[in-house]
Design brief:
Shape: globular
Distance between the termini: 63 Å
CATH architecture of the largest domain: 3-Layer(aba) Sandwich
Largest sheet: 9 strands, mixed
Radius of gyration: 25 Å
CATH topology of the largest domain: Rossmann fold
Helix content: 25-40%
Number of helices: 21
Length: about 575
């Protein structure tokens, strides 16, 4: 029988029995394992508890506000098993932001961690609203500090749920029922929630498993927050195929690498910034070698870039095997990047080092994966790959270069925005096409390219559209530059047209290494000279209306969202002129 809902998935995973589903280091610095059978039994116990003990009915909401941990997915499965709606919240939200979202959806039962529970107690309006707070890590050491009778331990509700004899109807959950209410923005006074159904997620785990070769023998390192739809849909896919999951204990490179080695991780899936950090970590190892060996290997690195083109990328796998082993990456079969644009420099760097990185694309409203590069086809990481099965993509009103808004249609498209019929109608048309707001094009081989964001478009005084992401990619090609942000600056106070300017964050570490190798004293003046020359060279290769009129150095990295996207709204043309 085909799996149509997450309830079906929970019933299905029993076939994997005692195979390890997830593991994570505990407070004793030991890995704690949970089997597929554990997940199935605990999910059903939670479902029993919520339905029979708390009397929740189909369509009621329960929130999860916690850091990544094995119990997170158990709670999720238990919530949606009988048709309740799960409301996953970003653990990085402030207590005030979490309060606004919980009051918006009116969820009054919450799964959380002890640390975040303490934060929530700072919000009296929220504490008055909540009826039950279930704490994943409530232990004897901290339980005595809590006098609130509404607080329960996760173990306590599991024990209660297991004792309940519950006979459930097999058709209690339909594929068009909402599974998740996910807030994507507006965490202050005007939140926007995406309604994703069981059908949406079933499409993901049934078809991602075809596009990306996750297998029963693999182990995935979980790095992204579980409230994020990209990570969540990937983990659903892992449960579908029997892949094991290791929850990273930290974002620190040395701890990630230790987790990879200790649990025999074979697959990495993350946002581009994580891969940038991994790449920088490997290159740092090269740069920390004795000067003679460093120069030899850096020369070999640049030689390998060319050899890869002649050997179908086999040269890097052969030449840099020792370096992958040293970095604990020897067993990595492939990595997938999503949720933000992938730096082409990093993608090429992975190829040069013999690591397979697959660039993909998606958005929460599409649950989220739309397209991805494939292992069994030509990898074009300057693109975001080919649409996954049953997903249609088209470019609306393409310009002379083929760029237009990306439209998506398929069983992955959301049901709509929570309590926002007007906004739903604005993004999903009468023919079922989701208007993504992203600008892109499709090549002759069917690969999708994302060239910009509709709301980020800069309109020049001559009326030409400029996509800042396109220019940023060219600027970021330079190893001396860590990141850049292209903005439109008004030509004058009376003009609506904008010219192109950019902020640049230098890669100070690269400058330092370059200076030590070549005997050059690195000063602010030298940094400005090198970056200025690169900006001029980039500008020479741009059409007149795209040329960069000026630039400024930022000494700190740009503020970013939880998915590592630059917060563009913090930077304006007016601010550029005043700083």
């Amino acid at each position: 029988m085909p799996l149509k809902t997450i309830r079906d998935l929970v019933n299905y995973i029993g076939i994997f029995g005692n195979k390890v589903a997830t593991c994570m280091k505990n407070d004793d610095d030991e890995y704690q394992n949970f089997t597929y059978e554990d997940y199935q039994l605990n999910a059903k116990a939670i479902a029993n508890y919520l339905e029979k003990e708390k009397k929740l009915k189909k369509g009621d909401m329960v929130a999860i506000y916690a850091e990544n941990r094995p119990e997170w997915m158990m709670a999720y499965y238990g919530i949606v098993y009988n048709g309740l709606w799960a409301v996953p919240l970003d653990a990085r939200l402030s207590d005030w932001e979490a309060k606004n979202l919980l009051l918006d959806c009116k969820a009054d039962i919450i799964f959380t961690s002890y640390t975040l529970y303490e934060n929530l107690t700072n919000q009296p309006d929220l504490m008055k609203h909540l009826k039950e707070i279930i704490i994943f890590d409530l232990m004897k050491s901290n339980k005595h500090k809590i006098t609130d009778h509404r607080v329960k331990s996760f173990k306590e509700i599991l024990d209660t749920g297991r004792k309940i004899d519950s006979k459930m109807k097999s058709d209690i959950v339909n594929e068009d029922d909402v599974a998740s209410l996910i807030y994507t923005s507006g965490t202050t006074g005007n939140p926007k929630g995406v309604l994703l159904t069981h059908k949406n997620f079933a499409h993901q785990f049934l078809n991602l498993s075809k596009a990306v070769p996750l297998t029963f023998e693999d182990t995935l390192l979980s790095l992204l927050p579980l409230h994020h739809t990209f990570e969540f849909s990937v983990e659903l896919t892992c449960f579908y195929v029997g892949t094991s999951i290791t929850y990273a204990e930290s974002f620190k490179a040395n701890r990630m690498m230790a987790n990879i080695k200790e649990t025999h991780v074979t697959i990495l899936i993350a946002v581009p910034l994580i891969f940038e950090k991994i790449y920088e970590g490997i290159m740092k190892q090269l740069k920390n070698l004795p000067i003679g060996l460093k120069q030899l290997l850096m020369g070999l690195y640049y030689l390998t870039e060319g050899l890869n083109k002649l050997t179908n990328k086999k040269a890097g796998k052969l030449i840099f095997g020792f370096l992958r082993k040293k970095a604990n990456l020897a067993n990595i079969k492939f990595a997938v990047s999503g949720a933000a644009p992938l730096n082409h420099k990093v993608a090429r760097g992975f190829e040069t080092l013999g690591l397979t990185l697959l660039n993909g694309y998606g958005l929460t409203e599409a649950s989220p994966v739309v397209s991805v590069n494939r292992m069994d086809r030509k990898v074009k990481n300057e693109s975001v790959g080919i649409p996954i099965d049953l997903v249609e993509v088209k470019i609306d009103s393409p310009d002379e270069l083929g760029n237009g808004e990306v439209f998506v249609r398929g069983p992955n498209v959301m049901k709509g925005y929570y309590k926002r019929p007007k906004e739903t109608k604005e993004v999903i048309d009468d023919y079922g096409w989701l208007h993504t707001g992203d600008i892109g094009k499709i090549d002759s081989e069917g690969y999708l390219y994302i060239t910009g964001r509709k709301k980020n478009i800069i309109v020049t005084p001559s009326g030409k559209n400029v996509y800042p992401e396109e220019i940023e990619e060219m600027i970021n090609e330079c190893p001396f530059i860590l990141e850049s942000l292209v903005i439109g600056v008004p030509e004058s106070e009376h003009s609506k047209g904008e010219n192109i300017y950019t902020y640049v964050v230098p890669n100070y570490e690269y400058f330092e290494t370059y200076g030590s190798i070549n005997g050059i004293k690195i000063t602010d003046e030298y940094i400005e000279k090198v970056i200025g020359e690169h900006i001029r060279n980039v500008s020479l290769n741009l059409a007149d209306y795209k040329k960069i009129r000026g630039w400024k150095i930022c000494k700190e990295e740009f503020p970013k969202t939880s998915t590592k996207k630059i917060k563009r709204y913090l930077f304006t043309g007016k601010d550029f002129l005043e700083t």
